[in-house]
Design brief:
392 residues, alpha+beta, Naphthalene 1,2-dioxygenase Alpha Subunit, Chain A, domain 1, Rieske Iron-sulfur Protein, 2 domains, 7-stranded antiparallel sheet
């Protein structure tokens, strides 16, 4: 994380003023909508406020459930500065914990993933089962009132949806992910059977920009024909064919069919679930606040964004592929196929990085025009309304 940020006209704007500007922007009807106000991407007070009211309360995607398939498989992650540990249990459920010892809070697991039958703190060898219960605390019998049952790992709420794993730091989350996304699943994404897609890539990246700038970029495809000549522009989706979804407090999405009915971007012949135009349709969606997905009949690309400061974020991203696609790849060809897939996605990320960092740089100007939105940028307006509601 950076030790200091470059100051600009919005850096020290107060929270009250930032919220007022955001609320005024969010009240505009879409026909008169303007971009996300610069102040909410640059104000330090607003950043601290959204950390407390968004990332310490909302459900955050940390990966795919199939990344931890067997008993004892684990993933580590970080949410708003809190180290997270997710572990597959013998029962098949996934449990989440704060990745910190109950003794003096040393981070226990430093590996990104792996398998374990227990977790031992490197500091004083307190040892926990995969269920988070304290099994052994050396020499603590010398403390007469010590109760091992009251010194377990701090547990966290977890939930899976369509193969994605979510965790919240909230002790009492007000809603479940599945309930919030039920309509979206039933009407759009359920037909793709994302739960069946198999993870082939998991990576991380850090960019010098505000986290919301990536949400802005990802939730609109207006830029794709211009900005992605080496990757997504090849699918040749027509701007006029894009449709934006309904308003929601929990998600936004848009979709469009590509020209070709076969090959990259289209459903495999053995895919009998997708019908009609959906066999060649991409759906881009955001599960608020920061889970981004490009869903296609032949693969999905997901990104989970986590702020590291006003002008920096870290994102974990991955790719998952339907089994019928993977079954067509010969064992001896898999490594080369995967290498090409990673190169393709890295190229797409680099194409986006230039835009996203330029968004942050340009929006710090003291003098700016009012700005406007294209009809297929409705998702930006929807995200602005979410942001105003959740922070207000």
């Amino acid at each position: 994380m950076k030790t200091e940020i470059a100051q600009n006209a919005y850096t020290n704007v107060s929270l009250d003023k930032s919220l007022k500007i955001l609320q005024e922007c969010s009240k505009k009807p879409f026909e008169k909508a303007t971009p996300i106000p610069s102040v909410v991407n640059h104000s330090i007070e607003f950043y601290n406020h959204e950390q407390a009211n968004i990332f310490n309360k909302e459900w955050i995607c940390i990966g795919r459930c199939d990344e931890i398939q067997s008993t004892g498989d684990f993933l580590t992650h970080e949410i708003a500065g809190t180290p997270i540990l997710a572990v597959r249990q013998k029962s098949g459920e996934i449990m989440g914990f704060v990745n910190a010892c109950a003794h003096r809070f040393t981070c226990i697991v430093n590996k990104k993933s792996g398998n374990a039958f227990a977790f031992t703190c490197p500091n004083h060898a307190w040892t926990y089962g995969i269920d988070g219960k304290l099994n052994h605390a050396p020499f603590m019998d010398l403390k007469t009132d010590f109760n091992s049952k009251k010194n377990n790992l701090e547990s966290l709420h977890t939930e899976s949806w369509e193969g994605f794993l979510y965790i919240t730091l909230s002790k009492n989350p007000s809603k479940k992910v599945s309930e919030s996304l039920e309509s979206f699943r039933n009407s759009i994404v359920g037909q793709y059977d994302m739960n069946n897609y198999q993870t082939v890539i998991r990576e991380t990246m850090s960019w010098d920009t505000n986290w919301k700038n990536l949400i802005e970029n990802f939730t609109e495809s207006y830029h794709v024909p211009i900005a992605h000549p080496k990757t997504f522009a090849g699918h040749k989706k027509q701007i006029k064919d894009y449709e934006c979804g309904e308003d929601s407090d929990h998600y936004c999405y848009h979709f469009a069919p590509q020209e070709l009915e076969n090959g990259p971007g289209a459903a495999h012949p053995k895919n009998t679930k997708l019908q009609g135009k959906w066999r060649r349709t991409m759906v881009d969606f955001c599960v608020f606040p920061s889970h981004l997905v490009t869903l296609m009949p032949d693969y999905l690309w997901w990104v989970s964004v986590m702020p590291q400061g006003v002008d920096e974020f870290k994102a974990t991203w991955g790719v998952a592929v339907p089994p019928e696609i993977l079954n067509d790849i010969a064992k001896e060809d898999y490594d080369e196929w995967l290498k090409k897939k990673i190169h393709y996605m890295n190229t797409a990320n680099e194409e986006d990085k230039t835009l996203v960092e330029a968004l942050y740089y340009g929006s710090q100007s003291r003098r700016l025009p009012q700005g406007t939105l294209h009809p297929i940028e409705k998702n930006l307006w929807q995200f602005t309304k979410y942001l105003s509601k959740i922070t207000g």
